[in-house]
Amino acid sequence: MAGVTTRTRLSPDQRRTQLLDLGVRLLSTRSVDELSIDLLAEEAGISRGLLYHYFGNKAAFHEAVVRHAADDLIAQTAPPTSGDAFERLHASMAAYLAYVEQNLAGYLSLVRGSAGGSEAMREIYDEARAALTDRVFDDEHDGFRVPDTPLARLVVRGWAAMAEDAVLSWVLDPTGVSREQLLDMLTAALPSLVATVPEQ
Amino acid sequence: MAGVTTRTRLSPDQRRTQLLDLGVRLLSTRSVDELSIDLLAEEAGISRGLLYHYFGNKAAFHEAVVRHAADDLIAQTAPPTSGDAFERLHASMAAYLAYVEQNLAGYLSLVRGSAGGSEAMREIYDEARAALTDRVFDDEHDGFRVPDTPLARLVVRGWAAMAEDAVLSWVLDPTGVSREQLLDMLTAALPSLVATVPEQ
Asked: I need a labelling partner for B162 at 20 to 30 A (CA). Which of A87, A154, A167, B170 fits?
């Protein structure tokens, strides 16, 4: 049981963060819809009343957990600061793949929009994707020279959609493709797509 | 009013097809969830009872309409038989873009999984996507030499996810990107991605 010790003296913010961490861990094996305040209360060993105090209602609770999961994703996939552009992108993709593997059920429910299909969920999801793709336009962090034009934005967004689809497909059925092949393909795909975009 | 004339002598199959055509047309401006048997009855000028006779229940009705819409998509985007590989793929992408524009609300609700999020809907959607990408492996119809390996399948699937994302993004906000630029980019993306995949 991944319980949260109730005796530890924590600030309300620390306690809230601890509960969100637990909520995200619970998403590794269940969809967002299957995550209930009752379940979190049981796993954390605290009262439902206290959880409602922290999170308000079920929709707000789901939103907070998913936002926390998105922040984790963005943090964990931050490219390393050393290495050439290919190495850094490769490391970031490997971290992304590991994240999807560790958070499969919850991630799948989000991507497939079955997480209640709420507007708020959609927004968090879109924001997280935008944060991930914005990195590509940040020379210091990534190193590919991607012209920041509306067409290049479409390409990079599209590449992210491709990566999401390929990673999920592979995690669900890796037959015939090694982890290294998948990561190499996704890493090579970005510069190869960007090369088709005119500089101006 | 896009009514279905009730006096025409049609076979039950023809009538059913006519009603499905109307259902698909109604999806151009509403999500799958917003499509009701009541609405179809009103637009078709026939009784709800008759519609229940044709389609059983709401879920089966939605499934039949979405399957019909997917068949339309596959038929309308069939690549022409003449022209080189680039021209044929370009024409197919142009037809896909036109389809999304004409069926925006319903298509969006399907892609975003907010169409009730049912397993049946997901399956129809996955089947349609598979039918679209399978074409790429069919030399006679497309002409790019794509090795039929598990990795190439992931790449082509990923390209389709990219196309879907880019087309929807562009239709929702075309600022700064012309229709021709979008179509050229999507057409160039496939061979450029496939080139990164080893032959074996």
From this structure: A87
C-alpha Rg value of chain B to the nearest Å: 19
Kindly report, residue by residue over B106-135, the tens digit of the pLDDT.
Answer: 888 777 764 445 677 778 888 888 888 888
The C-alpha of B23 sits at a distance from chain A's nearest C-alpha, in angstroms, of: 23
**pLDDT 10s digits, B178-190:** 999 999 999 999 9
The predicted pLDDT at position B170 comes to 97
Mean pLDDT of the residues in chain B: 86
Query: Which CATH number does B68-194 carry?
Result: 1.10.357.10
Instruction: Using alpha carbons only, give the angle B46, B40, B42 rounded to the nearest 5 degrees.
Output: 55
Fold exhibited by the domain B12-63: Arc Repressor Mutant, subunit A (1.10.10)
Residues B34-81 pLDDT 10s: 889 999 999 999 999 989 988 998 889 988 998 998 999 999 999 888
Residue B189, chain A, CB below 8 Å: the answer is: yes
B166 vs chain A: nearest CA distance in angstroms? 6
User: Nearest CA to B128 among B72, B170, B90?
Assistant: B72
Domain chopping of chain B, boundaries: 12-63, 68-194
B155 contact residues in A (CB cutoff 8 A): 166, 185, 189
- Distances from the Cα of A95 to the Cα of A115, A164, B101, angstroms: 24, 13, 36
